[in-house]
Amino acid sequence: MATVSQPPATEQISVENPATGAVVGQVPILSADEVRALAERGRAAQPAWEALGFEGRARVLRRAQKWVLDNQQRVIDTIVSETGKTHEDALLAEIGYVGSAFGFWAKNAPEYLADEKIRSANPFVLGRKLVVRYAPLGLVGVIGPWNYPLSNSFGDCIPALAAGNAVILKPSEVTPLSSLAMEEAMRECGLPEGVYQVATGLGETGQALIDEVDMVMFTGSTATGKKVMERAARTLTPVSLELGGKDPMIVLADADLERAANAATYYSMQNGGQTCISVERVYVEAPIYDDFVAKVTEKVKALRQGAPGGPGSVDVGAVTFPKQLDIVSGHVDAAREAGATVLTGGHANTSAGGRFYEPTVLVDVDHSMACMTEETFGPTVPIMRVADAEEAVKLANDSPYGLAASVWTKDAGRGEAIARRIEAGAVCVNDAQLNYLALELPMGGWKSSGLGSRHGAGGIRKYARQQSLLVTRLAPKRDLHMFPYKAGTTGLLGRAMKLLYGRGKRD
Ligand code: NDP
Prior knowledge:
Blueprint: E1 12-16, E2 23-28, H1 32-51, H2 53-70, H3 72-83, H4 87-112, E3 116-118, E4 129-136, E5 139-143, H5 149-154, H6 157-162, E6 166-170, H7 177-188, E7 196-198, H8 203-212, E8 215-219, H9 222-234, E9 239-242, E10 248-251, H10 257-269, E11 281-285, H11 286-301, H12 322-337, E12 341-344, E13 348-349, E14 356-357, E15 360-363, H13 370-373, E16 380-386, H14 389-397, E17 401-402, E18 404-408, H15 412-419, E19 426-429, E20 446-447, E21 450-451, H16 458-461, E22 464-471, H17 487-501
Parallel strand pairs: 5-6, 5-8, 6-7, 8-9, 10-11, 10-18, 11-16, 15-16, 18-19
Antiparallel strand pairs: 1-2, 3-4, 4-22, 9-21, 12-15, 13-14, 17-20
The structure holds NADPH dihydro-nicotinamide-adenine-dinucleotide phosphate.
């Protein structure tokens, strides 16, 4: 799977399986010159791709959709080998997402990017045809993270391609193999050469890519997102940023306790907790706090962790990114030192050559601790007792992040009212994360969690230039407002404006 089609480069990255420590591939570190060469190739290939039209492009995307499902096992094996995630995490959140996204954008791109006829109330443009149209940007750069090499790296290329752009993807240095597998897949499915290319490398490769493209779609940490925006400012290149989060879960006293406990366990531990919209902190109303903690602890204790085998072999996989193990350990150790109690887990485990952190439940936590305020991005669930919903909302909003959140209560109306008070781009009531599967719903962070969004109309229009057209067919030789200015006409125009905008009383 680790076929590399770029020009030869001197330096290489060894790709490691985080669950075993085995080296599973080698990819080149592309220099700025090599990225420029890819960009030239992409720009040369783009016009023919655009000229295929929505139908022609959709045919290729639908073929690719089938390819991913037909080659499911092969793709899952590649993802698992470079991330250490479980078979199910790769199937549900990567194959499932991309399988759905190919069809969604193939079907909806024509409608989202169709010409829009506009009506204006301004009498000065009466009788003119007003249209908004969307044209592809040209060359889009996608820079992706390591936690979802297929969904969050390649997944963002799909709408960019559907819109008629050429795309260069810079995957994370630790998980480049899935993106390269898709290069092979897209070629097999008839995508013209050069329309989708992969620029493997480190952060510098990402920086070089920003200099070459017409728009950057970035997913990653808030710190790197700021660097991306700074670099893009040099060339006034637009950016869309999907960044980190510290997603709160609020459990009210009337919640379905069993469902809430199952959800807290699943959405904090799924993908080893390495999901931007994972449950990162939990606030529970006092009357049910003890029962909730007992249930979650029991469920987390029962989780099986280890090197992923086939389906159903383990529940929680490895820590994909080497540095992440130190961050997770650091948050748990610091919390423990500051008075938190670890009810289960609480240790790193690298004894068998892989990189794991035990599924961990933390209580006696508060906002003086990093585990409640900074992105942990590991299999940990810190749970805090709150007096009431008011305190929960206040604490949920006490964060620089605003990516996603969830509220749990049997009173759905009250849950929705609380959801509207949470400062986050997406809030679920009695669910978490599922909003991400509704590709019709925009998904984007507030505050330090991002800029712009993916999914919905905005998720593809960002890959297009918007152009306004005004077309006049029938008109006099000279409009009233044209030269030469005459006192009589000016007076008439003044009275017309009064009539239009100045009538009636104001408060
Ligand atoms: P990073 O920010 O470390 O890296 C993201 C990508 O940017 C990688 O490809 C990285 O390359 C590249 N990069 C690094 N430095 C630069 C630079 N100066 N200029 C351009 N590109 C650069 O994020 P992680 O890979 O650690 O991903 C985890 C983060 O992603 C978490 O914060 C998570 O919340 C967030 N995320 C957000 C999502 C969302 O939808 N909001 C979804 C998924 C993840 P390299 O790997 O080679 O350093």
